[in-house]
Amino acid sequence: MSQITIQCRLVASESSRHQLWELMAQLNTPLINELLRQVSQHPEFETWRQKGKHPTDVVKQLCEPLKTDPRFIGQPGRFYASAIALVNYIYKSWFALMKRSQYQLEGKIRWLEMLNSDIELVEASGVSLDSLRIKAAEILAQLTPVNTTETQSTNGKKAKKRKKSQNSVSDTLSKNLFEAYGNAEDNLTHCAISYLLKNGCKINEKEEDAKKFAQRRRKLEIQIERLREQLETRIPKGRDLTDAKWLETLVVATHNVPKNETEAKSWQDSLLRQSSKVPFPVAYGSSEDMTWFKNQFGRICVKFNGLGKHSFQVYCDSRQLHWFKRFLEDQQIKKNSKTQLSSSLFTLRSGCIAWQEEEGKGDLWKVNHLTLYCSVDTRLWTTEGTNQVREEKAEEIAKAITNTKAKGDLNEKQQDHIKRKNSTLDRIDNSFPRPTKPLYKGQSHILVGVSLGLEKPATVAIVDGTTGKVLTYRSIRQILGENYKLLNRQRQQKHSLSHQRQVAQTLAAPNQFGESELGEYIDRLLAKEIIAIAQTYSAGSIVLPKLDNMREQVQSEIQAKAEQKSELLEVQKQYAKQYRVSVHQWSYGRLISIVQSQAAKTGIVIEESKQPIRGSPQEKAKELAIAAYHSRKIN
Predict the structure, then answer these.
(1) Are 316 and 298 in contact (CB under 8 A)?
(2) How far, in Å, CA of 531 to CA of 188, rounded?
(3) For the whole prediction, is pTM greater than 0.85?
(4) Are the beta carbons of 413 and 407 closer than 8 angstroms?
(5) 536 pLDDT exceeds 80?
(6) What is the pLDDT of residues 5-57, one digit of tens each?
(7) What integer pLDDT is reported at residue 256 of this predicted model?
(8) Spatial contact of 4 and 308, defined as CB atoms under 8 Å apart
(9) Which end of the chain offers a freer environment for a tag, N or C, measured as fewer CB atoms within 10 Å?
(10) Cα 562 to Cα 154, 244, 611, distances in angstroms
(11) In Å, how far are 168, 435, 474, 547, 611 from 616, measured between CA atoms?
């Protein structure tokens, strides 16, 4: 992606801020809340949840009658379009999350059905425990890959390789056993495979501890119950700006006794939840929905379609001022060209108005301040990048024209569509004046793999994809250099906040404490150095991990450290608990977002790959890069 997001503060008269607040808080946000509610009550809702997606046009259909509803009437057209787009975005993410949770639930239910005690397996199979073990050993011999691990050695590096190989074999074996269970038809094979899986793909000669097995099974049942609760109760509810729902819950909790612990917990959660006190943002999907100009003091200002004559002054950091100057220049140049230029080549792609919540007393439109988020295409800053975008758009338009013509017997609407497309095709040949800057050209076979972890937030490996060899590694200490001390300071702050939350939870008090911006600052330092490393080695791309298995990554890292500490299970559990307290999970999503943004400015391609569960941070970074390179060759 070559697009990044910049922001500025919008300053306007009190009357303009007041009117905008009323539009967003009293009309647009209630409209979004109503659309969220109506989607959740749609007859096809359960079907959409099973599929993991919904038809996007259904939200538009639901919104049409609401435009004449007295509760929501009187909004600019852009506000309705923004509400529809936001609800679609919310439910697109929610349905995808629910589908993943449903998949996890089905997997755990299947495992619960397979997870039986030795006594239950003996009874179900109709053979003795020794016979069951013999059958399990036969299956194990058939499915175990050829043992290629090295002979025992005291050498540290060989021991590490042997451990990694064993883990890989165990993962493969587990997968093979699950497949074999599904293909097996006789009951004895089912029981033998269940026996192997619950014992870590090994034959357990010791007598099973009934108490520990019961705890293990109960833990799995709790996980299933929690997933079911998530699937049943976590429906997007919107924003309660008036605290009406909070007050309603307070009245109910004050005058009634909860029927059970579940209801009591739901009341408590509702009362302690701190919902946003500002309205939903309003998106402007077209760059021409915003008009840029300078006021009498020479300050850049902006007006928005649908908001009449209300104007807003732009206040931004000096590092972002050049972008807003460019927005103004692009519009002025297009206006002077008398429609000979196309707005599809504007550097600004879209915008979004949002209220930033602030502390203080008084009218909410005075206390809170306005922020404008702008999405820009970094390629459109230079002549070379603009030519690249122009070629892409020309190809896209030509394809659309060809597809429309292929339908034959075109009606008037289709003919007008082709005419507009041809007009756009002619206009994009006329270029905006842009500075010249050579595009970044990295070597496609050189990749920078970035692994993420709990103790070491980021580790880098520069890999030659053609040979699979590592050119160099960079540890978190090497990446941060003299700023490494900031990492320890950030961990101390997070530890202190964790303690405050724990105390607040014990007292049933609000426990959402804000954090300093130190973590974000460290992320920016990491991103800056990762980009610099990629440029130094002329890397063609940076490979980042997919975040969908980061929880598993973190748990595996903790478990590996606990196993190194002791062979005793109880000692491992205690160590893992203490370790989670001492080292807190990093904001991986934020770090990835910043790396992506910095890479977009430079022109370095970002790739994604699934990070291995096991191995050192260096090994994970290397495997990330190699997997991305091979995936690229296959595709």
Answers:
(1) no
(2) 57
(3) no
(4) no
(5) yes
(6) 999 999 999 999 999 999 999 999 999 999 999 999 999 998 998 888 999 89
(7) 76
(8) no
(9) C
(10) 21, 48, 21
(11) 14, 45, 13, 18, 11
